[in-house]
Specification:
The complex is a heterodimer. Chain A has helices spanning about 1-30, 40-55, 60-80, 90-115, 140-160, 165-175, 175-180, 185-210, 215-230, 240-255, 260-275; strands at about 130, 135-140. Chain A has a single domain (about 5-275), classed as ABC transporter involved in vitamin B12 uptake, BtuC (Orthogonal Bundle). By secondary structure, chain A is an all-alpha fold. The termini of chain A are far apart. In chain A, helix 1 (about 1-30) runs parallel beside helix 5, helix 3 (about 60-80) packs across helix 8 (about 185-210) and helix 10 (about 240-255) runs antiparallel to helix 11. By secondary structure, chain B is α/β, with parallel strands linked by helices. Chain B has 2 domains: about 30-145 and about 285-355, 3-Layer(aba) Sandwich (Rossmann fold), CATH 3.40.50; about 150-275 and about 360-385, 3-Layer(aba) Sandwich (Rossmann fold), CATH 3.40.50. In chain B, helix 2 packs across helix 11 (about 305-325), helix 3 (about 80-95) runs parallel beside helix 4 (about 105-120) and helix 11 (about 305-325) packs across helix 12. Chain B is elongated. The mean pLDDT of chain B is about 90. Classes of the chains: A mainly alpha, B alpha/beta. At the A-B interface, helix 1, helix 8, helix 9 and helix 10 of A face helix 7 and helix 8 of B. Chain A: InterPro entries: ABC_transp_permease, BCAA_transport_permease. Chain A: Keywords: Amino-acid transport, Cell membrane, Membrane, Transmembrane, Transmembrane helix, Transport.
Chain lengths: ~290, ~400
């Protein structure tokens, strides 16, 4: 039964990685923009949730959507003010710009919120574990699985079935032709970017309990976001989703069964998959 | 050409000489102390506590001792040893400090050690806790603690108090490995058995798999050492996984239950038994005054790092008193050796042989007092010398 507990923990961890990273998959894969500051938006969401719950006394479930909204707003403002000037620039410029943004975010949060680790006060209903036919199910992790599962479905539907989804795909594949067809490309990009940031913010709020929240969050977890997107391939949502699950389960199981090698399992998995499929699990050859 | 440059040279020489004169005139009545601490970055709480404690001490005792004015020059090394080294050098060479102090982490204390030796400037270590630090230079004195002091004590205590099987969870870096090594030695010597040994990576996102392993190995207790900050995450997940309900105790050196973080951990921490040199709940008059003054000044509880800083500045003051204000390195170190005093943590002294601190180690249990969590001391091992010295 331990095996199933480990599997459950791994799935929850993977789902969390997915929500944190799928915004990056959207900007990187769909908009072809390397945004290494993605984690900073996640951190923003985490701190917004923490301040609302701990200091303003909001219920946790009301603060979660606010974490999304706040990060999305910050994302929208920054996209209009800064990011859009870099869409046409080489990837190296984008990397340097966004990594600079990370350092500024780290310093700013350290100054405003202090460097100690922040915990979000959870409702009692989310604490502890219950026993399901011998499998230990953590309540909080179960909630993560439910929220992230629903989110993935919604995301997939939006991208594949809605008008906005098809506009976005058109805007990405050929911005000139798309604007010729009357699609407002900058607006589509701005919305998409803000949405990606909002997802990161929600992920940040959800992850505070498990990954810990401090000003170094964006630096500490940047590598995990990148691994998810690289392994999953960045041309769809299903790719990063399956990659997150695979990596989450692999990481948790590796740390449990081989604690001495544990931290390396996730990297080994990445290397093996990339040798086998250099564009990621579901990647297509580079779009441009 | 030569004659043309001469006036410039002369001017430069005069300027230099007058600067040197001014500096020496100043040095007559001022003793500068270079305080190097991590004020930003992951260890910032250490730096802030020490800085706070020193300011508090100077408010209480004035900034003059033995006819000298004490001036603190604070530098932030943001937990990077190469910064520490550069700052120590600047402080010694440019600012002519008589003492360097602080040092949040072991590599920082190491980095400054050769400079202390070379310049014959005392290095007062107020936080870093690896045993071998004081062996790196004859000018290093420590007022904090060593991990060996607390880990050996909790090892002996566990073996004597009905804990037979222990699973260990320690972070895989120098202090974690120190804690594990000294605990194991003493616990096994006392008849205990280690049933599971897990080292977690320093940048560890999720304790779940490690805790599940702890749970499945069915120990009597989990011995834990993780860096400050991760302690809260550990205790929360420990409770989430129901380890508290399955009767597995948490034991360890006291760093995990730092007063700074303890109350934020929530009730999950209740019952954890740790060995350490300081608790904000230490029941002495001296400590009650210290805690009250610190809380009044900074609105938070002092942790063990604050006490390390408070005693460090006290040591410097008393050494200057003893030398009558003579501030050269050899006189100060000679004065510091063997010094004894009553600290908020209890009676302490500086071992004249190793220049390391000798202090009581208390065994404490986390309990709720007046609605807040505290480490309540219930047993004392008196005058513990650092057991980790390689040179005896």
């Amino acid at each position: 039964m331990t095996l199933l507990t480990i599997l459950f923990d791994g799935v929850a961890y993977g789902m969390l990685l997915f929500v944190l990273a799928c915004g990056l998959a959207v900007t990187l894969g769909l908009m072809n923009f390397v945004n290494l500051a993605h984690g900073a938006f996640a951190m923003a969401g985490g701190y917004v949730c923490a301040v609302l719950v701990n200091q303003s006394g909001w219920p946790f479930f009301a603060a979660l959507p606010m974490a999304f909204v706040a990060s999305a707003l910050i994302g929208a403002v920054l996209e209009r003010a800064l990011y859009r000037h870099l869409y046409a620039r080489p990837h190296l410029d984008q990397v340097l710009f966004s990594i600079g943004l990370v350092f500024m975010a780290v310093a700013a949060v350290d100054y405003i919120m202090g460097s100690s680790r922040v915990f979000i006060t959870l409702p009692d209903a989310l604490r502890g574990q219950f026993d399901f036919y011998g499998v230990g199910i953590g309540r909080y992790r179960l909630m993560i699985i439910v929220i992230c599962g629903l989110l993935t479905l919604a995301l997939q539907l939006v991208l594949a079935k809605t008008r906005f989804g098809s506009r976005l795909r058109a805007a990405v594949d050929d911005p000139r032709a798309a604007s010729g067809l009357g699609i407002n490309v900058p607006q589509v990009f701005a919305l998409t970017f803000a949405f990606g940031c909002g997802l990161a913010g929600l992920g940040g709020a959800l992850s505070a309990e498990i990954l810990g929240l401090d000003p170094y969050f964006p630096l500490k977890f940047m590598i995990y976001f990148l691994i998810v997107v690289t392994v999953g391939g960045s041309s769809s949502i299903t790719g990063p989703f399956l990659a997150s699950l695979l990596l989450g389960i692999g990481d948790v199981a590796g740390k449990y069964y081989l604690p001495k090698l544990g931290p390396f399992v996730i990297y080994t998995l990445m290397i093996v998959i990339l040798i086998w499929r250099p564009n990621g699990l579901f990647g297509r050859a580079a779009a441009r | 050409m030569l004659t043309g440059t001469r006036p410039l040279w002369q001017a430069a020489c005069i300027a230099l000489a007058s600067v040197a004169l001014m500096a020496s005139a100043q040095a007559e009545d001022t003793v500068k102390i270079g305080l190097i601490l991590p004020m930003t970055g992951g260890q910032a709480s250490t730096g802030k506590q020490i800085d706070n404690a020193i300011k508090l001490y100077m408010q209480q005792h004035g900034d003059e001792v033995a006819g000298k004015k004490i001036e603190i020059l604070l530098r932030d090394d943001s937990t990077m040893p190469d910064h520490t080294k550069r700052m120590a050098q600047e402080l010694i060479v440019n600012d002519k400090v008589k003492i360097i102090a602080g040092f949040g982490i072991t590599p920082a204390a190491f980095a400054a050690a050769p400079l202390a030796t070379q310049a014959k400037v005392p290095e007062v270590v107020m936080a870093a806790g690896t045993s071998s630090i004081t062996e790196r230079s004859p000018y290093i004195v420590r007022t904090s603690f060593t991990l060996a002091q607390s880990s050996t004590v909790i090892g002996d205590w566990a073996a004597k108090n009905g804990i037979k099987k222990v699973a260990t969870l320690t972070t895989d870096y120098a202090p974690g490995n120190d804690a594990l090594k000294y605990f194991k030695e003493h616990f096994i010597a006392g008849g205990g058995e280690i049933v599971e040994e897990v080292k977690t990576p320093l940048a560890n996102p999720d304790f779940a798999p490690f805790l599940q392993r702890m749970k499945d190995s069915k120990p009597d207790a989990v011995f834990v050492f993780v860096p400050a900050g991760q302690g809260g995450s550990f205790m929360k997940q420990y409770a989430e996984r129901g380890l508290d309900k399955s009767g597995i105790k948490v034991i360890g050196p006291g760093d995990v239950m730092d007063d700074d973080l303890l109350d934020g951990m929530g009730d999950a921490a209740i019952g954890a038994v740790t060995a350490h040199m300081y608790s904000a709940a230490h029941p002495s008059e001296k400590n009650k005054e210290f805690v009250a003054a610190y809380e009044k000044a900074y609105g938070s509880r002092p942790g063990f790092m604050a006490v390390g800083g408070y005693d460090g500045i006290h040591l410097i003051y008393e050494a200057l008193n003893k030398t009558g204000g003579k501030a050269d390195g050899d006189s100060l170190i000679a004065a510091m050796k063997g010094m004894e005093w009553e600290s908020p943590r209890g009676p302490i002294s500086i071992d004249p042989d190793t220049r390391d601190i000798v202090q009581n180690i208390y065994i404490r249990k986390v309990e709720k007092k007046d609605g807040q969590l505290y480490n309540i001391e219930f047993a004392t091992v008196e005058a513990v010398k650092d057991p980790g010295k390689t040179k005896k």
